[in-house]
Design a protein that fits this description.
mainly alpha
Length: 74
């Protein structure tokens, strides 16, 4: 079954059932905002300084919050 077919069927459900379905699907996803605890604070600071240097030297172009969110939604 395709996503379009699933969506079509889901939209036939009552509001309550759609909310339950949405919650079930949402809870099944991994949290993309949980950071790996494997990196120490010292390593994180070193990485942040490296990234800052890359930006200052023009090696990379920083993204605005909007650009980042747009890319993540793609």
């Amino acid at each position: 079954m395709s996503i379009d077919q699933i969506a079509s069927e889901a939209l036939r459900l009552s509001s309550r059932d759609r909310a339950i379905l949405a919650e079930t699907i949402w809870e099944s996803l991994d949290d993309p905002y949980i950071l790996s605890s494997e990196m120490s604070d010292e390593d994180a600071i070193i990485l942040a300084k490296q990234r800052d240097g890359e930006i200052e030297r023009g090696e990379v172009t920083p993204l605005s919050h909007k650009e980042l969110m747009d890319r993540l939604r793609e």
